[in-house]
Amino acid sequence: MAKFFRAAVLGPPGSGKGTICKRIAHSFGLQYLSSGHFLREGIAADTEAGVLAKSYIERGMLVPDQVMTRLMLPKLEQLRNHSWLLDGFPRTLAQAQALNNLYQMDLVINLNIPYETLKERLSDRWIHPASGRVYNMGFNPPQVQGKDDVTGEPLIQHDDDKPEALMARLRHYKEVAKPVIDLY
Hints:
The chain has helices at residues 17-28, 35-44, 48-58, 65-78, 93-102, 115-123, 163-183; strands at residues 6-10, 31-34, 84-87, 107-110, 125-127, 134-136. It is α/β, with parallel strands linked by helices. Strand 5 (125-127) and strand 6 form a beta hairpin. Residues 125-160 form the Adenylate kinase active site lid domain. Belongs to the adenylate kinase family.
């Protein structure tokens, strides 16, 4: 039986997880699996987990562990005969334990980025909500200010990417990520 490679990249918001994961996955022929993509897909398809996730997101709340695992684990089961790299999952100890019940991770990379860098990146970050494409006004701006390069639709800046919300967001990330980092 072939050995499949299972890995995840952890890091705070704005650390570049998505960019790094895409590059690693492409370079090594891994399936790139983004929790954000699966969230958007589940919401668009009106799946039970997607509807639940949407109800939390619309209220500005984090999607609970049981909803995230209901969304992610079936996708991972479908890809059991593939090597993959996770972006944005697991975020909490409960998610990591649920993942570990299915798979042994071969590698977990933790991105440690200085606060000032995160603050700068997030305050300049704009997102295309439907696709999750991310733009940074400092180093990866859209071709047309405020518009997605692919669809031309408006970009948004999440309230929690604004400097006034950033400190609380990073503090929360540290609290939930430490046990996950310790586990791996």
